[in-house]
């Protein structure tokens, strides 16, 4: 029994030990899988370009990783519980070492799992922030690029307007405002730079917890290049603004200079023409004075070409500044016309001077006579001949001969100085030529250096000749002021010394270049041999394996090889140092010879870098080889779930009602299409790598893998054929509808403003014609808009037929139809109002013309009556009554016209036009009233004249009675009474 019990205990302990070993191996396997999973995060899911779409896709991938970690949670929990149970129940049966290892593995697994969960959550949050930052960066850069493009066009417009002097000041103000705007917009560029820094910080934060061996798959090169392009464009815009302001300042200066030259030319023409007029009309001047003044004016006319030349030069400078602008031909033509006018004016001035000079010369010849002039010439010739034939005596006296010798010494000194100056000028020019040749001659061109040395030797000999000539001149008796000769000799000597020094420098530089070339050749040979040896080592490496242990060994060997490759930097630095010194020496040597040193050095650097790239590529391939199977399966699952999600999302999209919504939907579809292509490409790459590595070792696995691939490809094709094109077509139709709706809205708003700008109807025929033309133009455009509206209704019907839920656009279409119909009614009403006002204006104009003619006739008749005597007016009372009746008729017509244009009229008329018509009617009415008052006055005068006649007749009757009574008394009283009676009668008639 004890033996059996011991055997059972031994068997139980062995069983517990085997179980502990199994649990330990399971924990190790899960830890390895977690490690590979953690490395997969950085090698697979954090490898994308910095753009909003790629960041969003990466965020979605990390979200899927979080979901997969939730699936791992149960498995990890079970393993940990089994280990805890084993440690609790079988603690006595497990050895202490095995117990400690098991607990350590258990605790390490829990720590690793929690670390991976925190890492994924951290990546998910940072990717959200990164996606929002990228969207903001893209939006701001696009907005700033559009603004800069617009400002570039504005700069071109301002430059074109600056060509006209009349618009230059306004254009300069616009350019200044534009520069202020550009300076203000620099804050937007700084904000974009801050966004770039934040994006790079977020990218760095993503890799804070990355393994040391993980390579970075997110590169900010593209986004940084985008910022650099925006920065360069902004700098170019600033430079364009500065160039524009400098161009305008230059144009202003050239324009002012041209105006000043034009003013000087005009002043000069005016002055000389005034002087010529005074000479032509100066009767108090004699012939000599006229000729003297004409010669002076002729000289002024010749000298005046300077002013004309200055004006032409100023014109050419301005035209050269305007070269390339659209206004250049017009300005050039105008300047040519002005130049032709100046030349013509100058030619006419010279012709007038010549005519005046000929006239004065003829007058002088007529006054003095040709014979006197010839006589004076003959006498002058005789006198000159006598003086020319006079012999000079040579005295044989020492003092006199010394005096004559002194004069000969002067001639010798003069000839020597002249010869010395000629030699000095020749030597100076030769020195300048040699100096120019030396500056352009390379220190490595031995032939040219020898030629220059020979030329300098020849110049030295010529300088010695000059020194001898100078010494000979100095030996002439009584010479003074020899400093000029000494300075000339010293100047030439200094130039020759300078040339000799420069030639010596060329020779020394040649020696230095030769020495450096030898050093460079040696460094190049060492670097080439080292690169060749390292290439042979790279070629001897085994291909990348698919076995994990071999890959680990290959990774270690590769790291050792990379450390060895860094030793080549020493040779590379030596080569670069020698190359730099050689290039500097060749630059100092002068000449135009292109050196091959930089090219050779860059080729070796490129070979060295290519080796480094090849090793980095191999390391990446080694790191990626272990993950291919897991990546392939994950890629297939992710693509399948992603396709299902996108199918659901596409089926739930509604038709957008705004352009931004359409663009967002199209951008989403494009992102989806691009993401699908990327996912399919990624999956195809995985399949290609799987086939290349031959990971599926059996025909069954190959068949299963091909079936899964075919199913995913079918889902992908269905998505591309059915869902995406249908959604894109709906979005395109909605975009067309929204654009058409916006166009009609814009047209309707513009035409409504135009309808308001036309103003109220008027009776003015010209204005009414213009208004009617504008209204007819709007009516013609209205026909095209009706057709567009019908097309929009058709598009909306097609959208509604395809998608029953797409009813968001229907209210907008109904509102647009109603507003379009309302505008059409307003337009028709406006046309009728304008037409009625125009017809009313024609009628009023016709009535007004008739009334004015009648008023003129009546006024003429009244004036004629006013010029008659009262007794004559009395005989025309009937005519006055007729005229009065006619005035009443005209007054009624004026009242009728006033009622036609009055506020109570049913015709709408402009208030100012109505007030003008009422003012005209009031003027006519006042004139009719004034004529009525004149007729009333004439009538009163006629009536008063008739009353006075009746009284006179009554008095005459009374006097006749008295006469009859007196006649009888006369017979009785006699002649005395007759005389008295006659006297009384005369007195009465006189009263």
From TrEMBL:
Statement: the UniProt record of this protein carries the keyword Hydrolase: no
Coiled coil (residue ranges): 55-89, 336-363, 605-682, 813-840, 880-976
Record keywords: Coiled coil
Cross-referenced SUPFAM superfamilies: Spectrin repeat
Gene Ontology molecular function: structural constituent of cytoskeleton
This protein's GO CC annotations: cytoskeleton
Keyword Cell membrane: no
Protein name in the entry: GAR domain-containing protein
Organism: Heligmosomoides polygyrus (Parasitic roundworm)
